[in-house]
Amino acid sequence: MKKTISGIRGIFGDDLNLKDVLEFCNNFSSLIKSKKCVIGMDTRPSGPMMKDAAIGALMKNGIDVFNLGTVPTPVVFREARKYGAGVIISSSHNPIQWNGMKFIIDGRGINEEELPQIIEHQEMPTTEFGTTQDITSTYIEDAQKIIGNIENNPDIVVDIGGGAAKEFAPELLRKIGCNVQVLNGELEGSSRGPDPTADELADLSAASKNKEIGFAFDLDGDRLVVVRNGTKQVPDVTLGLGVAKSLELGYKNFVLSIDTSISIEKFIKEQGGTVKRSKVGEANVIDLMLKSNAQAGGEGSSGGFILPEFNYCREGILTSGLIASMMGDSKFHEILEYMESYYQIRDKTAVDAKLHDKVIDSVKSKFSKEYSEINDMDGVKCTIDEDSWVLIRKSNTEDIIRVSAESNDSEKCKKIVKDTLKLVNETFEQLR
After folding, report:
1. Residue 116, CB-side half-sphere exposure with 13 Å CA sphere
2. Which residues of the chain have pLDDT under 50?
């Protein structure tokens, strides 16, 4: 089981059980000052059981629960702004047998200071039971106000991946003026896995050849991958297009995770904007956004564009609408051409979580002898030259170490990743 600011995640029935749901939601109750909490889930088979347990634990502690049913993560975040707190039953892009919980306070995910209060037992005072009621969301109408209407009616194909975006992404796109074809609307029989950043998206690639653009979502609808002319784009393109649209709307102050493409940072600065870098992770990006009053930004590795005025989370569904509104706009092609001159590779290697820190410290020592500019904000990032970098960091959700690299030379980028993976694996073997 993983317990991080990204949420509680585990294999349901193995290292994550209903008693864990009861415990963590009991503890979370201590953070809910409003005594109100919204709850929603994605389409995983274990979702209904976990949601019922979560509702029971919250109600026992005097929390009034507002049930959204099966909805994308951004919808729960949006509604949590109104009620003060939220719980999402989801493990995002993890395999189907996994499930988990994400916790929301004041419209944002929990931070490092709040996490211990959720994973450490809290004795809650006896109180009257809370109430529960089913509610619907105004998410689509709210998003439509941000995006506006599209006059050129672009043809778009959407791959739901059997996830919770089914009733939201196609409807939003149609309401703003798009012609929409839907693939993999149901989880059963879906031709692809839950993580669009890792899947080949063969069906969407084929269908998008006859459309202006294709969009793929993960199970809880916060991740978005763009497919253009039959070619799957790297996740940074999703963020880059969201950034380009926000620059067009007049936003200037951005926060990007440390592993986001340098091309996005350069594009922002060329347009007169400013950039601050955060640790990898949605919660870390948002934390720095709040501290610096940033207007937009996100996380390149997950394709996660974030617009704080609308939601304090990765916004796959809203971003699909923002990108659709750029069809036929020169800014769309400008950012694509700009980013195509850079090459990003994100890889990973299996490393026992108990040795993550020792491996990274050892690699950092070796890197310091080779590179002059090293950033240890989150793992180890080495600047090789003004157009090339490499980052190694431990995963918050898996027993792996991630290796990310970028360069304006594809062969150079491949060599950087190959050499770094070799170094990480050799170091791991030496420490075992």
Report:
1. 2
2. none
The pLDDT of residue 370 is 87
The answer to whether 222 touches 332, Cβ cutoff 8 Å, is no
Is residue 312 domain-shared with residue 348, that is, in the same domain?
no
Indicate whether 350 belongs to any domain: yes
Residues 20 and 31 in one domain: yes
Whole-angstrom Cα distance, residue 177 to residue 4? Answer: 39
φ/ψ of 245, rounded to 5, equals -65, -40
Say what angle helices 316-324 and 73-83 make with each other, to 10 degrees: 110
Q: For residue 159, count CB atoms less than 10 angstroms from its CB and return exposed for 0-12, middle for 13-18, buried for 19 or more.
A: buried
Q: How many domains does the chain have?
A: 4
Over the stretch 348-375, which tens digit does the pLDDT of each residue have? 999 998 999 999 999 999 998 888 799 9
Residues 9 and 121 placed together within one structural domain of the fold:
yes
* 351: phi then psi, degrees, rounded to nearest 5: -145, 130
Rounded to an integer, what distance in angstroms lies between the CA atom of residue 134 and that of residue 132?
A: 7
Which two tokens mark 251? 């936003």
Full residue range of the structural domain in which residue 405 is found: 343-431
Angle between helices 139-147 and 316-324 (to 10 degrees): 30
Q: What is the pLDDT of residue 301?
A: 86
Residues in the chain: 432
Query: In this predicted structure, what is the pLDDT of residue 308?
Result: 95
CATH number, residue 192: 3.40.120.10
Q: Do 264 and 331 have their domain in common?
A: yes
The model's pTM: 0.92
10 Å Cβ neighbour count for 214?
28
Using the Cα atoms of residue 288, residue 290, residue 294 and residue 296 in order, give the sign of their dihedral: positive
pLDDT of the residue at 84: 96
- The answer to whether 16 and 94 have CB atoms below 8 angstroms apart is no
Residues 245 and 325 in one domain: yes
Is 146 a member of any domain? no
Residue 124 in tokens:
């809650």
